[in-house]
């Protein structure tokens, strides 16, 4: 009889070594699958049956988290996707006779809502950092970089000083699946980043007792740092950026509660609105599949909307403009 806990360890090692999955993905899969094992109490993968999966779905749908809220369908599906992957691995790599992974059906999800900031909201947010103080210089650079590049917050905080090239205005990013890509910095973001790097080089040693050439690009600036602090101990974290955006959004009076990811959405939406092709946007965002990028095409193209308003008979009334007249607006007759 195969030990399912041992097989789970093998699966996680397979994801790390053969599939080159990120540390975050490994932690998530470990969490989802151990939650299933703790629920099911099974020790042999052959005991994993469709009825057991159905019971697990029911358990997750009734589960109340620490915030006293139910799990949303997408979160439940993350558990089921991890389980599917584990079953596929057992069949293909371990030759274990288990239920087919396609027997696990995902829950239906509504259309994904994409929160974006309009130009006015974005300007209000970007005006909030006090650029006369170190934290404000850093925070302004962070906000500008998020909107300029569409980086995930985890990618931004992982940046090292060696990853940026201010001359070419390019940044080398280690994205999902540990794949490198290059992102580009706008004029405004480059100026903000130059200000931060200049301040960092001039003041870092006296402020935290470390050399200015230390690795992390963005650093924590709150509190006293121990003399033996290492570079990684001072790296600005994901929660720090989330708190930063929350604080400035509150000061800006933004009631839609934007997150760092909202700036990523706003970046993609801004490019598409101004005519960028979706394949280029996909590459800049680091999306593996074009379908992931297509969620941004919900944004109304102002030019197309104007064409619809002007020429659709439901707006103008029947016969308000002949077909010939409408065509001559675009094609010389």
Automatic annotation (TrEMBL):
Residues 2-91 form the Core-binding (CB) domain. PROSITE patterns: CB (PS51900), TYR_RECOMBINASE (PS51898). One of its GO terms (biological process) is DNA integration. Gene3D superfamilies: 1.10.150.130, Intergrase catalytic core. One of its GO terms (molecular function) is DNA binding. Keywords: DNA integration, DNA recombination, DNA-binding. Residues 112-309 form the Tyr recombinase domain. CDD domains: INT_XerDC_C. The keyword Membrane does not apply. InterPro entries: CB, DNA_brk_join_enz, Integrase-like_cat_sf, Integrase_catalytic, Integrase_recombinase_N, Integrase_SAM-like_N, Tyrosine_recombinase_XerCD. Pfam families: Phage_int_SAM_1, Phage_integrase. Belongs to the 'phage' integrase family. This is Tyrosine recombinase XerC. It comes from candidate division WWE3 bacterium CG08_land_8_20_14_0_20_41_15.
């Amino acid at each position: 009889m195969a030990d399912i806990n041992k097989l789970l360890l093998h699966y996680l090692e397979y994801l790390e070594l053969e599939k080159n999955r990120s540390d975050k993905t490994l932690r998530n899969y470990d969490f989802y699958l151990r939650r299933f094992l703790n629920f099911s109490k099974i020790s042999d993968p052959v005991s994993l049956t469709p009825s057991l999966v159905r019971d697990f779905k029911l358990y997750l749908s009734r589960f109340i988290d620490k915030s006293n809220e139910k799990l949303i369908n997408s979160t439940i599906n993350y558990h089921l996707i991890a389980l599917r992957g584990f079953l596929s691995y057992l069949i293909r790599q371990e030759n274990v006779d288990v239920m087919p992974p396609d027997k696990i059906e995902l829950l239906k999800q509504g259309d994904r809502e994409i929160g974006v900031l309009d130009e006015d909201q974005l300007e209000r947010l970007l005006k909030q950092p006090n650029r006369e103080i170190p934290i404000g210089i850093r925070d302004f650079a962070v906000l500008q970089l998020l909107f300029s590049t569409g980086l995930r917050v985890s990618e931004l905080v992982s940046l090292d000083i060696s990853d940026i090239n201010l001359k070419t205005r390019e940044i080398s990013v280690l994205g999902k699946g540990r794949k490198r890509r290059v992102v580009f910095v706008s004029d405004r973001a480059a100026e903000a980043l130059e200000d931060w790097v200049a301040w960092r080089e001039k003041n870092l040693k006296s402020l935290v007792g470390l050399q200015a050439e230390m690795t992390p690009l963005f650093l924590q600036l709150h509190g006293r740092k121990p003399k033996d602090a290492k570079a990684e101990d001072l790296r600005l974290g994901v929660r720090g950026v989330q708190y930063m955006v929350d604080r400035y959004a509150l000061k800006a009076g933004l009631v839609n509660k934007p997150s760092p990811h909202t700036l990523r959405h706003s970046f993609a939406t801004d490019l598409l609105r101004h005519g960028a092709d979706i394949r280029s946007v996909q590459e800049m965002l680091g999306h593996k599949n074009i379908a992931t990028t297509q969620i941004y095409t919900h944004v109304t193209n102002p030019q197309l909307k104007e064409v619809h308003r002007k020429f659709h008979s439901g707006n103008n009334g029947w016969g308000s403009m002949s077909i010939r007249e409408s065509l001559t607006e675009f094609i010389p007759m």
